[in-house]
Design brief:
single chain; alpha/beta
């Protein structure tokens, strides 16, 4: 079969190589899946660079989220078990972790549902307890993680402010349903958010960026507001001033969604049921901006790493339905 492999760490476009390899053999409790579509996540970029908390042995095939097909023809969502990741024609996954792909979503959309929307649901509901009528601010609102949070926020009855970088991404954020869009390249984010909220600020702030975005969040979080720290796509990990959190009376909430798989896996199943229902209603639908063939996966992973994409980019092996 064909599979992209990383033999040394570095930029994805430089270290990912498309090769002919043996089809992987599942271990105990594992299944072999034909990859119908594989979603590109920022952790794929970090693993190529050797900067992620999980460091699979070299060589490995990246791709941590797929829509696959079992030997008996079932369409499922899975997180492949590295080193046999999803940027290949076949991948290996734990049988216990398979989830039915929602009928309302095609393969590329289903491949982009699990990590981003589960993260959004746990961040907004489990951690921040977002309430109808509250104001939600989403950084990088046109990106893969941010776009999921925007849709989930609207589905929860929140007023959503989306912060983006550039006019093109601003248009995407509006199409996603943001009530207010702030272009950080053309506007003062803090001033714009304060104006939009009448000086009150945002009740919940969803931050997958870190760095300057986090600093802005501390200036626009409302009384008893909650800042949900999801990741650091901007490359800079902030050091919170806890005296500031005390004086303004806000909460800083960390979210490591992957921990729930071992700490409370039942919540993941419950969340998937709710996401499936929302998809059936049309309330959520992953924004798939690009569907690329397997041969173009390395370049696509690099674009995600460079931060020039909107929504989700999915890899569709030749012959697989999109």
């Amino acid at each position: 079969m064909q599979a992209w492999q990383v033999h040394e760490n570095g930029e994805p476009s430089e270290v990912m190589r498309l090769q002919e390899v043996e089809r992987p053999t599942p271990g105990d409790g594992q299944v072999l899946l034909r990859v119908r579509a594989a979603n590109i996540n920022f952790p794929d970029v970090l693993m190529c660079r050797g900067h992620y908390q999980v460091r699979p042995p070299l060589p490995f095939t990246p791709g941590v989220e797929i829509c696959g097909e079992t030997e008996d023809g079932r369409r499922v969502i899975a997180n492949p078990v590295l080193p046999y990741g999803g940027f290949a024609e076949y991948a290996v996954a734990d049988a216990a972790g398979l989830l039915p792909a929602p009928e309302a979503l095609d393969d590329a959309e289903a491949a982009a549902l699990h990590i981003g929307y589960q993260t959004g649901w746990f961040g907004l509901h489990r951690r921040a307890a977002l309430q109808p009528g509250e104001t939600l601010l989403v950084h990088a609102a046109a990106g893969g993680v941010g776009s999921a949070a925007v849709q989930l926020g609207k589905a929860a009855g929140a007023t959503v402010i989306g912060v983006v970088g550039g006019a093109g991404k601003a248009a995407v954020a509006r199409a996603l349903g943001c009530d207010v869009v702030v272009d950080r390249r053309a506007e003062d984010v803090v001033a714009a958010v304060k104006e939009a909220t009448g000086g009150r600020g945002a009740d919940v702030i969803y931050d997958p960026v870190g760095g300057e975005a986090y600093t802005q969040s501390t200036k626009v979080v409302a009384f008893e507001g909650r800042i949900v720290v999801v990741g650091f796509a901007g490359g800079t990990i902030p050091s919170p001033a806890l005296n500031h959190a005390l004086v303004k009376n806000y909460s800083i909430l960390g979210l490591h969604w992957g921990l729930y798989a071992t700490k409370n896996p039942g919540l993941i199943l419950d969340c998937h049921r709710q996401l499936t229902e929302l998809a059936a209603k049309g309330a959520i639908k992953p924004l798939v901006s690009e569907r690329v063939p397997l041969s173009e996966a390395a370049a696509a992973v690099q674009r995600v790493g460079d931060g020039v994409t909107t929504g989700r980019v999915t890899v569709v092996p030749e012959g697989a339905a999109a």
